[in-house]
Amino acid sequence: MSATELFELFFDDDMFQHLTEQTQLYAHYKNEADPGISNSEIRCFVAILILSGYNHLPSKKLYWDMKDDVHNNMVANVIRRNRFIQIQKYIHMADNTEINEMDRVWKLRPLMNKLKEKCLNHFQPVKNLSFDESMVKYYGRHGCKQFIRGKPIRFGYKMWCLNTNDGYLINFDLYQGKDPRGDENFDKLFGKCSSPMVLMLQELPRQDLPYIIHIDNLFTGLNLLSYLKYLGFGAVGTVRENRISRSCPLTNKKQFKKKPRGHIEHIIEKNDGILLVKWMDNSVVTIASTNDGVHPLSSVKRYSQQEKKHLMVSRPNCIASYNNMGGVDLMDQGIASYRIGIRGKKWYWPIFTWFIDVAIQNSWDLYRKKSQRV
Questions:
Q1: Is the pLDDT of residue 110 over 90?
Q2: Secondary structure percentages of the chain, helix, strand, coil, to 5
Q3: Phi, psi at 110, each rounded to 5°
Q4: Are 86 and 26 in contact (CB under 8 A)?
Q5: Which pLDDT tens digit goes with each residue over 351-366?
Q6: Which of 54, 72, 112, 109 is nearest to 342 (CA)?
Q7: For residue 234, what pLDDT band results from cuts at 50, 70 and 90?
């Protein structure tokens, strides 16, 4: 399949037809004259959005400007400027007469569900999966907007993402505080950050496969790892000091910092069979695992300020396994390279364009795997 055909696995005729119907319906809802927007025009509209990701201009109107340094023949010949602006004004994903007050993103939910279904259907099972947060840039006002210090994108919507280790997005959901589709029991047991992951794992098409879930210290808890082990999933994740029982015989973090680089301590929780490992690197690293052990040890190169040279430091096997955590970051990197450049005023516009960016990223991942097989 070509790159375009792979993209249409995620944005297929059903998706475009849904956008066409809801856009027409929204124009009638606003008591405007019938714009007569067709399926082919919606396709042209999405195509121009994709083009803006690699041919970025300061303003969308410049694609139709007649100056040689900005004019784009491909865009100008396929659709008029005012028609493009009209479609952007009315573009819609849900019926405004069917409001779900419990769901803050009800305007996006129908399209979101369709895309999630396609991401799951075309998922090529691999062993290592990672769960993490991804930010969608947004500076306006909305109840779901978040601020995360230290992130490349600090302001915006937070997406919970389940990815493969090479960046394919399997499943996702938008964080909105109390999730109307969530499970209150999971929220109480695992927290609001971890319960979406448990729900996403239950939607995997092949749950009988030996998946290994990689998570960071925001999500990792011993009760969560025990539950994942009960479901048949392996799990590896960094864990915060305050989530370890005080009765645990491992050296506390303050004293462990005095140990030499490469020092390892480990223990297995008797009740749950969870391995806890502390490893001294540049700082203290604490790992909880139900899949990988301490052995076999590997070696990593580190620079010693005292000896002014590189040294080889022992590293536990579970730490090496945790390096498969970067699937969400790889997806973010791919999206950031060619993110749609045309901006809109609606609060849901950045999420809608993120859907298209995700479809491009997933189709590229499938295309790359196909090329490797050939």
A1: yes
A2: 40, 20, 40
A3: -60, -45
A4: no
A5: 999 999 999 999 999 9
A6: 54
A7: very high
pLDDT of residue 62 exceeding 90, the answer is yes
Indicate the SS3 state at residue 4: helix
Q: H or E stretch including 41?
A: helix 39-54
Distance of CA 131 to the CA centre of its chain: 8
Residue with token string 């915006």: 156
Q: Is the dihedral of CA 206, 207, 209, 213 positive or negative?
A: positive
3-state secondary structure string across 271-334: CCCCEEEEEECCCEEEEEECCCCCCCCEEEEEEECCCCEEEEEEECHHHHHHHHHHHHHHHHHH
Tokens of 297: 């040890």
pLDDT band at 373 (very low <50, low <70, confident <90, very high): low
**Tokens representing residue 110 in the block:** 């129908």
157, β-bridge pairs: 136, 145
**C-alpha distances in angstroms, 64 versus 74, 301, 343?**
10, 54, 16
CA distance 32 to 25: 10
Contact of 341 with 57, CB cutoff 8 Å: yes
> What was the pLDDT predicted at 94?
94
Length of the chain: 374
Residue 189, Cβ density class (10 Å: 0-12 exposed, 13-18 middle, ≥19 buried): middle
Distance from chain centroid for Cα 230: 25
Please enumerate in sequence order all residues whose Cβ is within 8 A of that of 141, keeping only pairs 6 or more positions apart, or say none. 347
Q: 13-29 and 39-54 are packed helices; what angle lies between their axes, rounded to 10 degrees?
A: 110
Say what percent of the chain tops pLDDT 70.
99
Which residues are CB-contacts of 247 (< 8 A; sequence separation ≥ 6)?
none
Average pLDDT, the chain: 91
Which residues are CB-neighbours of 129 under 8 A, at least 6 positions away? 162, 163, 164, 165, 170, 211, 212, 213, 214, 327
Asked if the model's pLDDT at residue 28 lies above 70, the reply is yes
Cα–Cα distance for residue pair 17/15, rounded to 1 Å: 5
| pLDDT digits 0-9 by tens, 133-182 | 999 999 999 989 999 888 889 999 999 999 999 999 999 999 988 777 76
